[in-house]
Amino acid sequence: IIASIYDSYASLPAVDTLTFIMATSTNPHQFSWQQTMLRIKDPKVTVPYYEKNFGFTLIHKYDFPQWNFSLYFMTTLPDGEVGPVPGTKEAEQYLWSMKGTCLEFTHNHGTENDPDFKVSSGNVAPNRGFGHIAVMTPDVYAASALLEAEGVQFQKRPDEGKMKGLAFALDPDGYWVEIVKRSDKSDVTNKFTFAQTMFRVKDPVKALHFYRDLLGMTLLKESHMGEGTDWGFSLYFLAHISPEEEHLVGTEEFISRRFGPVIELTHNHNTEHDEAFKYYNGNDQSEEWQVRGFGHVGFLVQDLDAACAYLGEQGVAFKKKPAEGNMRGLAFAYDPDGYWVEIIQRGGISMLDM
Fold first, then answer.
1. Per annotation, catalytic residue among 104, 178, 245, 264
2. CA distances from 106 to 42, 146, 186, 270 (A)
3. Is 174 exposed, middle or buried (0-12, 13-18, 19+ CB in 10 A)?
């Protein structure tokens, strides 16, 4: 949910739902990663782009003409699964109790007619922070060739640059969409699946403590490259794991075999030693940061008040606590890099009557 308009919402009662994330000692509040929010210029361009090219399904949408914005929620569903009809109570209940992760596209009305409007991809200074989303496919080369033939623009083709076998497409707003290979051992049959959200972090120790130790994600893999050089970096891949997946953690190619996406934290070495260094969170606007883009990642919880109280006890700062503003059922915390993290009552948001 776009945070800048939360005061305009009204509170509504919670709905009891079941969740695949079990309450455990490492995830007592049943956090589950549910969304990545990106601002877009024109939904009539963006929504068909993801439907046609990457097999995403629109699972729900909200229109708020009184506040001049709309929200579009899209995800990749398993082959054969039919999503709910967007705009219905069934779609809303599905969205706020879903087992997977979706993209939330926020459209502020009128931007589609503004020739000067643009968003920040997160990859150009001084607005670096968010990096990309990714999709997974059985054959990166074949998929990239077909996408390019269909008119999709590329930041990097599979054989360009030093990292062979992966590509970066550009969506209509200039966001980078990484295309990575699915394992040949995977049982997933989709041509494309939503695979990851990447953002850069200053200090991996602090970031891992937040996402792994506080939000209950599992560190699935880490890679370290160029240690001791001026270009060295590390990658950390995290996800919430279902009970059915627990026995597979640590096995060969687990990430590229599973259906659901991961959060990829990218750390450029030595940034943690620079007191003045910081990444752009995609929301703040100042003389230095003018263009917004990425908004937040969002997590469902079983008891919003208890989860936020727990985070507060751990020293986490909040932009909006559950009882603040007119909107109940959600909060916004800050992660160690200042990225906004939405915390949402599972099954507890209803906005169709607004």
1. 178
2. 10, 28, 33, 34
3. middle
Burial 97-124 (b: 16+ CB within 10 A, else e): bbebbbbbbbbbeebeeeeeeebbbbbe
Note the pTM of the prediction, 2 decimals. Answer: 0.91
Give the C-alpha separation, 242 to 24, whole Å: 11
- Could you give the CA distance from residue 340 to residue 38 in angstroms, rounded to a whole number? 12
d(Cα 158, Cα 151) in Å, to the nearest integer?
A: 16
Torsion 29-129-320-309 (CA) sign: positive
- Asked whether residue 277 carries a pLDDT value surpassing 50, the answer given is yes
CA atoms within 13 A on the CB side of 46: 25
Which amino acid is residue 265, in one-letter code? L
- 253 noted as active-site residue: no
Cα separation, 141 vs 149, in Å, equals: 12
Look at residue 71 in the predicted model and tell me its pLDDT. 96
User: How many CA atoms lie within 13 Å of 292's alpha carbon, on the beta-carbon side?
Assistant: 20
Q: Say which of 104, 245, 264, 342 is annotated catalytic.
A: 342
Q: Measured in whole angstroms, how far is the alpha carbon of residue 27 from the centre of its chain?
A: 19
Average pLDDT rounded to a whole number, residues 117-146: 96
Tokens of 131: 């990096």
Please answer whether residues 177 and 36 qualify as being in contact, where contact means their C-beta atoms are separated by less than 8 angstroms: no
Helix (H, G, I), strand (E, B) or coil at 310: helix
- Nearest to 111, CA basis, from 64, 43, 41, 172: 41
Mean pLDDT of 120-137: 96
178 has catalytic annotation: yes
The pLDDT value given to residue 352 = 56
Residues 6+ apart with CB under 8 A from 160: none
Task: Using DSSP bridges, classify how beta strands 32-40 and 102-108 pair: parallel, antiparallel or unpaired.
Answer: parallel
